[in-house]
């Protein structure tokens, strides 16, 4: 995760039964957690494009191997929550390796989850 170079191993923990919210919890420091979510329920037109170098870094053979999650910043109320669409977390579902990648696209860092 950007800004946390000493934290390289994370567990993905579901926070609700619907699969809308997850926590990426550091295995080095369990108190460090990032709220993440699959983008489709909130941003149905979101189509991140990884470059060849990013895909190779993760060992992605096809788009189906990738699980894309956006980092969510909670707000004072649920309606104030935002998602970072510019730098999603991409997980190779076959190898379970992941990285936060910065996309070469014009996407917001703080897109409102509510629309």
Automatic annotation (TrEMBL):
Gene3D superfamilies: BH3618-like (2.30.290.10). It holds the Pfam family FliW. Keywords: Bacterial flagellum biogenesis, Cell projection, Cilium, Cytoplasm, Flagellum, Translation regulation. InterPro entries: Flagellar_assembly_factor_FliW, Flagellar_assmbl_FliW_dom_sf. One of its GO terms (biological process) is bacterial-type flagellum assembly. It comes from the Bacteria. This is Flagellar assembly protein FliW.
């Amino acid at each position: 995760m950007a800004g946390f170079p000493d934290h390289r191993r994370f567990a993905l923990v579901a926070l609700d039964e619907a699969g809308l919210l997850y926590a990426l919890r550091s295995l080095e420091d369990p108190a460090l957690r990032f709220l993440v979510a699959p983008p489709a329920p909130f941003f149905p037109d979101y189509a991140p494009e990884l470059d060849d170098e990013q895909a190779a870094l993760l060992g992605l053979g096809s788009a189906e191997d990738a699980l894309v999650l956006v980092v969510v910043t909670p707000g004072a109320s649920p309606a104030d929550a935002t998602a970072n669409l510019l730098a999603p977390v991409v997980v190779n579902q076959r190898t379970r390796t992941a990285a936060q990648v910065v996309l070469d696209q014009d996407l917001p860092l703080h897109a409102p989850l509510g629309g």
